[in-house]
C-alpha cells in the first residue's frame, strides 16, 4: 500500500478545532481500513507569525511542496490586525497558492436533503443540488498589469486593473473542467462576457477549441456570466460543471454557495498542473469559511466544511472515490438524523458541538463501510 503524505495546516481560530475532527477520520481510516495516510503538521497564519515572525515558514513551505496534498484550516483574527502587510495571516495562504501554482479552484455547491428547507431559495429549486464551480485562480483582473491608481494632475485620479488571459491559461482550466465533468454528469457550461470583453472572446474561442480537440464527448454550452448569475438562482440544477475566470468565478461561486445554506458547510479544493512524470497534481483543500474568531474555542464550530474538504482530497488527490462518496454519505446521514451544530440549528433538531458531530460522522462512516 502506497503511503499518502498529508500536510495539515490547522491555522487560527476555529481552524484547529475543525482539523481535529479530520484527524479523527484519518486515524480511523488508517487503523480500520489501512489507508496509509502519513501526516505532518505545520503552522500558518497568525500562529506562524507568533512563532516564526512569518505567515508561513520556509520549512513548512517545503513540507507543503513535498506533500501529496495539503489540508488547510483557516487563518486570521483581530489579534493580528496590526501586523505588517507582508506577514499578515492571509499572506501564508497566498504564498501557498502561488508557490504550489494552484490555478484551478473547485467549489462544489451541494444541497444536503436535510438542509433544503434552510436555503433562501424554494426547497424544490435546491433540493438534491450538486454542481461544481471551477474558477481560474491565478490569472485575470486580480493579477493583470498595469494595476495602479494614477494621479491625472487635474484633481482627478484613475484606478486601473487589467483583465488579461493567455491561451495556455484558458486551455489548462478548460481541460480541468472537461476532466471533472467526465467524472460527474459530463456537462460543462463556460461563462464569460464575450459581448463586451476581448478576454471573453478569447476565452470562448479557446474553450471551444479545447473541447473540439480533446473532449468532444462532454456536452459544452456557453453562457454570458451575468445571465449565468441569473440562471444560478433561477434553476441551478440545470448545471453540472461551470468554468469561468477569476473575477466571475469569485462572484458566481459565492452566489452558488448561498444556495446551500451555512458557511460552515462549504468545502473547496485548489489544484495545480499534473506532474508530467507521475500525473499527480499539487493540491490544497480548505473550507470556504474563515477563522470565525467570534466562536473560536467554544466547541461549537461546524467542522463539516473541513471534513467535506477532506472528502474532496480523497476524491481528487488519492482517487479514493468510494471512500469520498462514503464520507459525503456519512455527512448527509448525520444531518438526516437531526444532529446540528448551532449555525444550522432549526426547530426540532438536536444541537451538538464540534466534537459530537465529528464523532457521529466517524461512526456513520464505519457503519456505512460495514
Ligand atoms: P468567517 O468565515 O470567519 O465568519 C463569518 C461568520 O460565519 C461568523 O459569524 C462565524 O462565526 C460564522 N462561521 C464561519 N465558519 C463557521 C463554522 N465552521 N461554524 C459555525 N459558524 C461559522 O469570516 P469573517 O468573520 O469575515 O473573518 C474572520 C477572520 O477570518 C478574519 O481574520 C478574516 O480575514 C479571516 N478569513 C480567513 C479565510 C481563510 O483562512 N481562508 C477566509 C475568510 C476570512
Automatic annotation (TrEMBL):
Residues annotated for NAD(+) binding in this entry: 77-90, 290-302
Binding-site positions, Mg(2+): 226, 250, 254
Free-text comment on the cofactor: Binds 1 Mg(2+) or Mn(2+) ion per subunit.
InterPro entries per record: IsoCit/isopropylmalate_DH_CS, IsoPropMal-DH-like_dom, Isopropylmalate_DH
UniProt xrefs under Gene3D superfamilies: Isopropylmalate Dehydrogenase
Sites where the protein binds substrate: 97, 107, 135, 226
Annotated catalysed reactions: (2R,3S)-3-isopropylmalate + NAD(+) = 4-methyl-2-oxopentanoate + CO2 + NADH
Record PANTHER family: 3-ISOPROPYLMALATE DEHYDROGENASE
Subunit structure: Homodimer.
Name this polypeptide is given: 3-isopropylmalate dehydrogenase
Organism field: Nitratireductor basaltis
This protein's encoding gene: leuB
